Amino acid sequence: MNDDLSLAGVAFAAGLAVLAVAGDHAAARSARTESSVEFVQSRIAGEPTMAIVSLRDQRVTIYDATGWILRAPVSSGQKGRETPAGIFSVIQKEAEHYSNLYDDAYMPHMQRITWSGIALHGGPLPGYPASHGCIRLPYDFAARLFDLTRLGMRVIVAPTDVTPIEIAHPALFMPKPGADALAAKRAAEAEDVASKAATAKHAAVTASRDAAQARMAIRVSENLKRRMEEQLAVAEKALASAVSDKQKERATEARAKAAARVEELQAKLAAANAELQPKLNALAAAREFADTAEAARIAAVQAARELARALQPVSVFISRKTQHLYVRRAFEPILEIPVAIQEPERPIGTHVFTATERTARPGCDGASSPWKAGVLTTTWWTDVRGRAEALRASRQRRSRATRKPHSTAL
Predict the structure, then answer these.
(1) Residue 34: what pLDDT?
(2) How far apart (Å, rounded) are the C-alpha atoms in residues 47 and 397?
(3) Residue 114, Cβ neighbours under 10 Å: how many?
(4) 219 and 189, same domain (yes or no)
(5) Are 104 and 200 members of one domain?
(6) 211 with 297, same domain?
(7) Domain count of the chain?
(8) What strand order describes the sheet that includes 110-112?
(9) Do 131 and 207 fall into the same domain?
């Protein structure tokens, strides 16, 4: 019996030791994860324009218009549930999100990049791919990134690490001079018109309430007058049927009071009707003004929205398979035309072109073809699948040489 208790005590102590070691390892792993997050120190970081996830290095790098600003480790999809490589955008953000696919799992600061279940979110990082396909980020880093990004930010998931390079070319898009200022002006105008529309709507509501109160006063007067007219008819009938002098006296007195009351209520009704008409006129004018203000608000908001849309990233897709060029802005199609590709059978890879500045640099004559003047604007070209195809071809050659199977995340 004592031996059994001793063995049980030893087992219990060993279990506590295992838990303590596991807790220490988890705490150490968490500390290493947070310490491996990097922030640019040499300058003030701008607004994020792109996130590049390296599946090989299990790392995400966030870029602004000048260069990288944030780096952090990640945990991508485990074997059999690999995170797909490709070019994506942030299409939904939700600070408090729970998975509808994996047992209501907590996914804080979720930034969705596909509607099939792939997202960036905070989660545990064991140091290797362990998710069901999402890209886990350190919790604090995920919260910080969530506050910095906007819908539409480009997210590139690459088999290897990809570094953007700065380029310039005469065929690249040139922003319209003053587009940002005009969009800001229209947005301010829309806010002003919206405020006026709200004031007009409130005035119409007030006028409607005043008119309703006036109608209520008329209905009350009409009901009281009708009842007094009924009492007057009763008094006249009583007077007509009275026999004794006393009865006639009481009936006459009752009829006089009823007649006076009817006359009084008639005067009140006339006054109420007189007060109602101006209020009805004011209501009609207020409603007309509110309708006009609302129409102006809708037009101003639409104009501001269109200008804001003009500032959204423009995506150009050229498909070798379909021989078409597709242009999208803010996820909506704006152009589709056929194109001719020289040597269509030759792989050309997939390239991402992102303009990161909306204004020309100092010294650029924005009105006279600054590209021809040789002035550079900050533009990133990132070759994702071109490098991936080269990597895959190299793996295939090695596989044929060694006769061993291989697989890729693409």
Answers:
(1) 56
(2) 42
(3) 16
(4) yes
(5) no
(6) yes
(7) 4
(8) 92-94, 110-112, 119-122, 135-137
(9) no
Predicted TM-score of the model (pTM): 0.55
pLDDT digits (tens, 9 = 90+) for 330-349: 778 888 999 988 887 787 77
What are the pLDDT digits (tens) for 137-160?
A: 999 999 999 999 988 888 999 888
- Flag whether 168 is in a domain: no
The 332-338 sheet, strands edge to edge: 314-319, 324-329, 332-338
369, two tokens: 């073809």
257: enclosing H helix or E strand = helix 245-310
Closest CA to 174 of 371, 375, 381: 371
The torsion defined by the Cα of 218, 219, 222 and 227, in degrees rounded to 10, comes to -140
Q: pLDDT digits over 246-275, tens only?
A: 888 888 888 888 888 888 888 888 888 888
What span, in angstroms and rounded, lies between the C-alpha atoms of 136 and 72? 10
Q: Quick check: is 128 in a domain?
A: yes
| One domain for residues 92 and 40 | yes
Which DSSP string do the residues of 158-222 spell out, in sequence order?
A: ESS----EE---TTS--PPTTHHHHHHHHHHHHHHHHHHHHHHHHHHHHHHHHHHHHHHHHHHHH
d(CA 91, CA 150): 9
One domain, residues 271 and 213: yes
Characterise 323 by phi-psi region: left (phi > 0), alpha (psi -120 to 50), beta (else).
left
Residue 170 counted as domain residue: no
Residue 68 CB neighbour total at 10 angstroms = 17
Question: For residue 21, what are the domain limits?
Answer: 1-26
CA–CA distance, 197 with 199 (Å, rounded to integer):
5
Task: Assess if residue 242 is contained within a domain.
Answer: yes
198 & 270 share domain? yes
